[in-house]
Amino acid sequence: MGLHFDQPWLLLLIIPAAAWLFWAWKRTLRLSGPRKAAAFTLRAVILLLLISVASGFAPTFRDDYRAVVFVADRSASVADDASIAGWIGEALDGKEDGDRAGIVSFGRTAAVERPLTTEGGAPALRAGIDPVYSNITDGLRLAASLLPEGGRIVLLSDGRGNVGDAIRQSRLLRSQGIAVDVVPLASRAADDAAIESLQTPASVRLGERFTIELEVASTAEREAELRLFENEREIARETVRLSSGVNRYLFQNIAGSAGFNRYRAEIYMPGDHRAQNDTAYGFSRVEGPPRVLVVEGEPGSSANIASALEASLIPYDLASPEQLSVELADYARYDAIVLNNVPATRLSETVMERLASAVGDLGIGLVAAGGADSYGLGGYYETPLERALPVYMDLKGRRQMPSLGLILVIDRSGSMDGGKLELAKEAALRAIGLLRDPDTVGVVAFDDSPWWVVEPTKLTDRDAVTAAVQGIQPAGGTDIHPAVAAALDRMLEIEAQRRHIILLTDGMSAGNNNYDALTAAMNEAGITMSTVAVGMDADTALLKRLADAAKGRYYYTADQSTIPAIFSRETAMMARTYIVENRFVPAIGQAGGWLPLFSAGVPAVDAYVATTPKETAETVLLSPEGDPLLARWSFGAGRSVAWTSDLMGQWSTEWTSWPQFPDVLSAWVKWTFPQFSTDPWLVKARLEGGDAELTITAQGAAGTSNLTVSLTGEDGSEETLRPVPVAPGEYAVRLHNARPGAYFMQISESGDADGAPSGGSLAGFVIPYSPEFRLAGDEEGRALLEEIAQVTGGRMLSPEQPGEVFRIERIAARGKVDLTRGLLIAALLLWLADIAVRRLSLPWNRIAAALAGRFAVRQGPGADAAGATAWSRLKERTRSAGEFYAGGGIRPRGLEPRKAEDKLPDVRIGGTDGTDAARAGPSATGSAPSNGSHSVLPDAGSPDSGGAAGSPMERLLAAKRRGSR
């Protein structure tokens, strides 16, 4: 035996309890004697009982036993319950007295069939279990809650758990000191066929032929009938010969109508054991015909492209560069964009950013066709579109390049403040980036007078040149002539094969100077000059005249973001090496899937724009110099193709007249079509214990809108759901007890304060039948059971030996006697006794005396005689007092009348215990009066007394005086 306290530190409450009892004892004056002692004794015992209950007091005793909880798998994949119950009953026959056992069964969830008890005998498994799922995790968790440390679990299962994480739960059991013995059960053995999967493309085009793939598993070789439905319409029926294992079947179908199409496959096999796994579901979204946007640099230059698209039944729209939108959403309705010889100088920086985003983010295809205004010649160097295309715009590694001399004349007047000057500096840096180290560059900035930012120098220190250009600050007015003259003077000193000046300004020149001499000197020295007018305030007439006179090009732009492209274009055109004019037959490189297009050979090409292929691009066709003529690659979520010759027929006459040209061009365009759905939302479904967990993820930038989902089930039922945000751009919603089938959902955004829908899109997902009905082998489940036993330190028990269950070590434990209820009842009864002692008016002294007399030691005869004498005197005095107050003449002894001349004693009124009478001296007892002493009552024989006994009033006053003593 021993003692146990759950909270031993609560025993410290005895100290304040004892202090309170001591304080209360001293303060309580109403109770006295045995009554007081009894009350405080009861309270002390009550407090001690309550403190014992609070601290968890319990006597302990040694109790060694075995504790086992059987966890029975009652899911649909295992044998019947009767055989499992019989096995557990046989195992219970082997337990000894004092051993304890419990039973837990599980399917979708777990339930206690029998708590941990010493009861034996075969159990009846009657708990309500959903057998459609197998939740081993929940069964182990519930069993562990019944066991003490050192207990054991016996798991009877086929190991085909499909809810939760059984291995993770096993690790938790190991940390709790609980081992799991496993008894592997065989799955139900019967003839069964199951459709394991139905695969359809997520998205197809209207009129497109596609393949539907079925996987059918069977436990027997037998004939069966497969049926395939599209939107409840049977589209295929076929008799097949199933072999044992997995069988695959392919069906061809044509997308006949746009929208979402549901597909359902069914199999019928004679003697099939289960019907739950005979149906599978799928869906496809049939989109309308693809649409292509053709952007042409020159009106009417895309006739060959249009003819090829029309021959392939691909609708298209024509647009000029200036008509392109700056809104990304406007490009989402196209599947591909074709840029036909479009210069970057006619595309704003924002438009190029949107086009690159349409390819990289939305997966829209991009096809770039060459010409004199394309690629490097079009000013695409270091632009967003260069990032999206498979080729670089500069000529990396080319050795035979003419030496170049370039001077940039940049207006830095006050009107250039803000974005204009910053873009001008960016343009200068792009132009410098196209030059080689042996080339010469100079930069002069001007306001009222010219200022050399970079003296004409070789590009041996590019960092210094870059820093100097970035240091240009706006100030002053505008005077063009001195700046151009200074640039010409220094250009005459530069020795280069090609020398060029680029003048940029946004204002009117202050002076009215003659520029003819300057342009004449340029022509004589072979120097060219191009001019760029920015905005409506520029002197466009002067700048155009200067460009024409200096044999350069004049540019006017109202969009300052095109300035960098203009400078890049000018620098590329100055080299005059980008256009390669040489008739040749292209060589075939990395053609891949396009190789059949060129199986009969390829036509010759007369010219192309030289570029450099990117490292990860596929060069399909090459020139004799190794330059790419046709290249392709993937950029982000999209694809792009670069054709460096033209499609107008000037450089590629044989190509545009080639009979296979429409098929070849349409193949290029189709290759760039989106490879995935460009819907703004991606929906994924995960089945967990009968519930479907849907994850809705925003494609692209995550919005802050609330979502509303209108769900349409397989049977046509509709339901409205509110997804919960779980992460930026990610939402989750749960479907409880989801039925198998193909589901469609309309996702609506409501970002307004009033919650009105602001947009929507369609999506779909499939919920399959429960994995409990899959035809998986026993090997997979046995591997899981072995791992559970290994992780927890348990045993692999044979189904033929149930007697091995209780052959385990006992748990060395100590039992406890729970006294909580008894202690509380005792405290309650003592509390009632405490109330009785304090509140009931009983002769407690006589009770105490009687109790004391019962247990006191008997005294001698002398003591009894003395007590009798004292009792007689007390009765005599009581009788005398009664007669006196009743009006009789007999006065009690000690109250005889005094003489009239006697003085009254000094009486202090208010005493309650008779001490004043004692202090009065012998006069109060009837002895001879001393000097100065008087009787309290007047003498009965005096004239003032009114008679021997006195009047009633006098007797009352006398009694009052006596009572105050």
TrEMBL record:
<feature type="transmembrane region" description="Helical">
    <location>
        <begin position="37"/>
        <end position="58"/>
    </location>
</feature>
<feature type="compositionally biased region" description="Polar residues">
    <location>
        <begin position="924"/>
        <end position="934"/>
    </location>
</feature>
<dbReference type="InterPro" id="IPR036465">
    <property type="entry name" value="vWFA_dom_sf"/>
</dbReference>
<dbReference type="InterPro" id="IPR029062">
    <property type="entry name" value="Class_I_gatase-like"/>
</dbReference>
<feature type="region of interest" description="Disordered">
    <location>
        <begin position="885"/>
        <end position="965"/>
    </location>
</feature>
<dbReference type="InterPro" id="IPR017868">
    <property type="entry name" value="Filamin/ABP280_repeat-like"/>
</dbReference>
<dbReference type="InterPro" id="IPR002035">
    <property type="entry name" value="VWF_A"/>
</dbReference>
<feature type="compositionally biased region" description="Basic and acidic residues">
    <location>
        <begin position="893"/>
        <end position="906"/>
    </location>
</feature>
<feature type="domain" description="VWFA">
    <location>
        <begin position="405"/>
        <end position="570"/>
    </location>
</feature>
<feature type="compositionally biased region" description="Low complexity">
    <location>
        <begin position="938"/>
        <end position="952"/>
    </location>
</feature>
<keyword id="KW-0812">Transmembrane</keyword>
<dbReference type="Pfam" id="PF00092">
    <property type="entry name" value="VWA"/>
</dbReference>
<protein>
    <submittedName>
        <fullName>Uncharacterized protein containing a von Willebrand factor type A (VWA) domain</fullName>
    </submittedName>
</protein>
<keyword id="KW-1133">Transmembrane helix</keyword>
<feature type="transmembrane region" description="Helical">
    <location>
        <begin position="6"/>
        <end position="25"/>
    </location>
</feature>
<keyword id="KW-0472">Membrane</keyword>
<dbReference type="Pfam" id="PF13519">
    <property type="entry name" value="VWA_2"/>
</dbReference>
